[in-house]
Amino acid sequence: MPLANPDCRRLFRDHDWSTSPLGEMDQWSVELKTLTNVMLGSLQPMLIVWGPSQVTLYNDGYAAMCGNRHPEAFGRSFQSLWHDIWEDVEPIISAAYRGEGTSMDDIQFTMYRNGYPEETHFAFSYTPVRDPWGTVLGMFCACTEVTAEVMARRAERTLRDRFMQVFELSPGGIAMLGGPDHRFEYANEEYYSMIGVSRDIIGKTVAEAVSEVVRQGFVDILNGVYRTGEPFVARALPIELNRGPEGEMQRRLIDLVYQPMRNDAGAINGILVQARDVTELRAEEARQALLSHELGHRLKNQLAMVQAIASQTLRNAPDISSARKRISERIAVLSDAHDTILEGGRGSSTVRQLVDQIITLHDDPAQPRIRIVGPNLKVGSRPALSVSLILHELATNALKYGALTSLEGSIDICWRVAGEANDRFEMEWVEVGGPPVAAPSKEGSGMRLISAGLNGAANSNVKVLYEPSGLRCFITADLESFQKEH
Amino acid sequence: MHATILVVEDDGLIRMDLADTLTDRGFSVLEASNADEAISIMNESTLIRALVTDIDMPGSINGLELAHHVAETHPDCAIVVISGRYSPSQGALPEKARFLSKPVSETAVTRTLTALGIA
Fold it and tell me: Out of A300, A311, A456, whose CB is closest to B17?
């Protein structure tokens, strides 16, 4: 079996001791001989600093720490070895020579023992060595490498920091409670923003820090989790929290999880709280559900309206091809009216927009024959569809039988707010200059549709008069329901 | 003898078409545009064999409440409730009432009336 420290054994053998303050080896004191034997037999890095001139002796383990200062440093003064860090080394070596030992837990060296620069860590103890009369002869140092421990501690710390970041970055609120009285040990920012940002909770019990939850039974629940180890999971739990800017109570909906945390022995010693404020989320979901419900309802009503129009058209049509034409025209009018209703948001369409739409369809801009007078009046979605349909039917009728059949004919459309309490909507359609008209023997589908009145408006009435001067149509309805968005 | 049916629907166009459809089928049809009108018509006439009503209507009560009212005051009157919004859960409708989803087809309404014994 090869001897330990072959490198330094050779240095000891080859060194010219005659010029050394220590003198020839066989003249050395028994203390120095014994320590040298111990050092060269040991696999631990060891160092001897001996005599007033602090001659430095070491083994292979320590040589590695000296880096390229080895082997020059062997047998020379301790100061010449550590001249660059002498400020730090001098006090402890001097202390050792005064008889005071020193131990250091962690000294860092860069070592090249594996062919590349490597961070290493050592624990040292400087021990004074005395002769039998108590005089300090020198210092003996044994080193223990603690690189692995230091690295493990560092990795652990890094991991802990990372986990802390994970907690901080979590979109949900996280808090850790310790002990049977549920004392806050940690809470992330999201948790604070949920319970109220400026509250002081760390180190306090839940009952002290968030006292309003006690009467809501949450401390009882925490006690249960702590006692039984059964987690508590709840969704959209209504919780009252004094989280307002002035500490005032607010009611929130919270997804809440309490989970027991255990020590190494498996005993419960805390509770992990995970909480997410879902108040806005739930409100948005409810709004979405309502909206899609409302949309479905509207769609079904629209389909019922189209069904009625199609059925009425077919019921009164002279033949299939004219029925087909009328149905597609009527559906197109509803579609245009929808555009107006949706443009700029619901409830913002006006009577004028609807009238303009019909005029664009039936009048000639070069020779306008339809005059309109009326205020800017808002109209609800449902009455808007009826107004458009009625105006379309009147215009179609005028083109076929009324004022628009002759070049001299014209139409006046006017609308106003009327009634003693200004609570009625009125609209008039007056044809003049056309051929004389008379009530038809059989009511066509257009007139049937007109007579259905204004959808969604209360007390609506549509009257069609066949006067010799031309057709007149008088539409009236309760103003409030005419303008209401259903 | 034509059976008389009361149609209650606030949308004039839909009411008109439903009334025409039932008239074509040989029924005699009365029309109301809300529940309040419907109640006064029911109070005046004892001949009404069936009530066909929408749910969502303006007025002091809606069609569902009207259905319950009529079920109590006119136990012999058949009831058909129509809506595009609600699908009433069990128990929301009067016991013998039937529900139809909007838009209602001619086949569905006549078949339902036949099932209720109105011919």
Answer: A311
Fold of the CATH domain A331-483 = Heat Shock Protein 90 (3.30.565)
Q: Which pair of structure tokens corresponds to residue A316?
A: 């009164």
Which CATH fold would you assign to the domain A6-151? Beta-Lactamase (3.30.450)
- What value of ipTM does the predicted structure carry? 0.89
Chain A residues touching residue B19 (CB < 8 angstroms) = none
pLDDT digits (tens, 9 = 90+) for A309-339: 999 999 888 899 999 999 999 999 999 988 8
- Contact (CB<8Å) B58/A307: no
Is A308's CB within 8 Å of B16's CB?
yes
Q: Which of A452, A447, A332 is nearest to A394 (CA)?
A: A447
Query: Can you read off the two tokens belonging to residue A348?
Result: 């913002």
Those residues of chain A whose CB sits closer than 8 Å to some CB in chain B are: 293, 296-297, 299-301, 303-305, 307-309, 311-312, 315, 382, 386, 448-449, 451-456, 458, 460, 481
Question: For chain A, which ranges sit under pLDDT 50?
Answer: none
DSSP A163-214: HHHHHHH-SSEEEEEETTTTEEEEE-HHHHHHH-TT---TTSBHHHHTGGGT
CATH number of B4-115: 3.40.50.2300
> Given an 8 Å threshold on Cβ–Cβ distance, is A455 in contact with B13?
yes
Q: What is the domain partition of chain A in residue ranges?
A: 6-151, 170-277, 331-483
